[in-house]
Amino acid sequence: MTKELHFSTWGSWSGARQEETEAISPSRDGFRAFMGWDGVMVADPSVDLVDMCRAFMEKVKEESCGQCYPCRLGTHEMWQILEGICSGKERGGDIERLRSLAVLVKDSSKCGIGLTSTRPVLDVLEHCPNLFEQAIDNGGVPRGTYVARVSAPCSQACPSHLDIPGYVDMIRMGRFEEALGIIRRDCPMPGSIGRTCLRPCEHQCRRSIVDEPIAINALKRFADDRMQSFVQAEAPAREDTGQPRVAVIGAGPAGLSCAYYLQLRGHQTTIFESLPEPGGRAAVGIPDYRLPRRVIRREVDIVEQLGAEIRYNLTIGQDIPIDDLFQKHGFEAVFVSVGAQEPAKMRCEGEEAGYQCFLTGLEFLKRVAFGENPLSGDKLLVVGGGNVAMDCVRTGLRLGFSQAHLLYRRTRLEMPADAKEFTEAEEEGVQFHYLVQPMRILADQGKVAGLECIRMELGEPDSSGRRSPRPIEGSEFTIECDAIIPAIGQTCVVDCIFPEDGSVELTPWKSLVVDETTFQSSQERIFGGGDCILGPDILIRALAHGKQAARHIAQYLEEKTCRADPDERLGRYMARLKIFDPEEKPPYAGSSRRAEPLVLGAKERVKSFAEVEASFSLSQALYESSRCLRCYRIGLAAL
Fold this sequence. Notes:
Elements: E1 7-8, H1 18-22, E2 33-36, E3 39-42, H2 49-63, H3 69-86, H4 94-108, H5 112-116, H6 119-127, H7 129-137, E4 146-151, H8 153-157, H9 164-172, H10 176-184, H11 190-196, H12 200-203, H13 207-210, H14 216-226, E5 246-249, H15 253-264, E6 269-272, H16 281-284, H17 293-305, E7 309-311, H18 322-327, E8 333-336, E9 342-343, H19 361-369, E10 379-383, H20 387-398, E11 403-408, H21 419-428, E12 431-434, E13 436-444, E14 447-461, E15 467-471, E16 477-480, E17 483-486, E18 490-491, E19 526-528, H22 531-534, H23 539-559, H24 566-577, H25 602-605, H26 618-625, E20 633-638
Parallel strand pairs: 5-6, 5-8, 6-7, 8-19, 10-11, 10-17, 11-12
Antiparallel strand pairs: 1-3, 2-3, 2-20, 4-20, 9-18, 13-14, 14-15, 14-16
Helix pairs in contact: 2-3, 3-4, 4-6, 6-7, 9-10, 9-14, 9-26, 10-14, 11-14, 14-26, 15-17, 15-23, 19-20, 20-21
């Protein structure tokens, strides 16, 4: 054990991750001890473990869903016994009764609450039985101060930490309004996210160890589609109470999320958007066949119903200096959430020449979103390997190109695009060319005529872990084409928003520097999140940034301070403990296949921008939600 850990049984039940857990101490996140699903860790020996067991079981019995009879009654009685011991009211035989109940709950429960939550109590009973005797002899123990948190492998993997087992279970029971209420606590755009998320939660679904992961994202979309007119009734926006006003720069997922949660706390927000409609990159960078804009507009309507104001066609830094938001318009805080709109360069000869039928990926998708057909011809070349490249090449087919080719300088294995998008593009007839690097754009009378390329081979891995491509000498070749779209990435440059006096710290790449927990910048009234601090990333992470920033903007306005609270520190610590263990051998056998939503046939879907994927049917949703193992994990830390 490390010197910091005075007592630890962490990992002893499974014998897994012992080397990792020996290097983890709760003191690194400001806690004296931690008790959770895999044991106990004590950094400060003055912590009373008997009282900590009491506090832990109090949280456990509150979280027990009651669907397993032994868990519902057993956890409550365990808490009562521990409460009696800690209060000096122990009855004869209580310790043995506590032990037998802990074993009963662990062995008879079906979900993670009962299966794992008596383990730390059994550990303390096994390794420190004298502590319970001392508590009885002393007539009780002093009460400590604790913070508790409930998570799950899927919830921990989700950037916004949705209570995924909670809403999935509500769907299983047919309680769809409650399911959507749970989702909206942490995701105000379930329709958009349910169609576009890259599903990090599903990659850490414990069901995948058994057979196949739960279709978590499809279930989120189902709940929203089923209850389209639902607005969260538990926490309506307050009327204008004179609370300080907040300006939000950008009406993309991060900005909309920030405004949504600020409005729920009674802080009036005004969103400034440079485009003529809301949604940011989600609206004009994702084609309607994946994310219909009517879905985004419906979700924006809810934000406006909560009291937020959106002002369109205004660019902060150009039309309105950011300082004027404070000095002339009276805002007391600003959240910056501009998207990544600066395209990366191919470093290819001719890309700056202004040739006709040469257009960057985001500009192409934006023009199409506004009803234009900006490129024409028979043969389209798209350069890139991410989701934007996939959107461009599939959009090209829908605009009438008879051939759509995608060029990528690595292999399929290294391609970052979502596997589902790749499969659908392949079905639609997109032709893929791997290990190809553009060198020079060919033109005829100022219009694109072809692309000179060179073949590549993979060398050693680069900083991203992917093998670096290198050119093969003498392998140059030419592809004739009518249009070229580079879609090799983009960056977010925000220096044009801020004054040049250095009062707001920026990275060398001109993105905003903020605290990773509070999202506060070097200028205390300015916060930021989403692409402007990370570069292009998944929508759910931008949305999560907006939610977290709203929490700390409200804290700053209401308390004149900005700091991580114990719950946030506990969440950070539990993430370091890695709730998901891919080497685990769960006590279940594979028994079911994952449900998949209906998808339009390839020949049909390339004819229009109609939505490709359907929502789950009721029977599919009920079946798929029943596959959830409800893998909750409870953690409790001593302050």
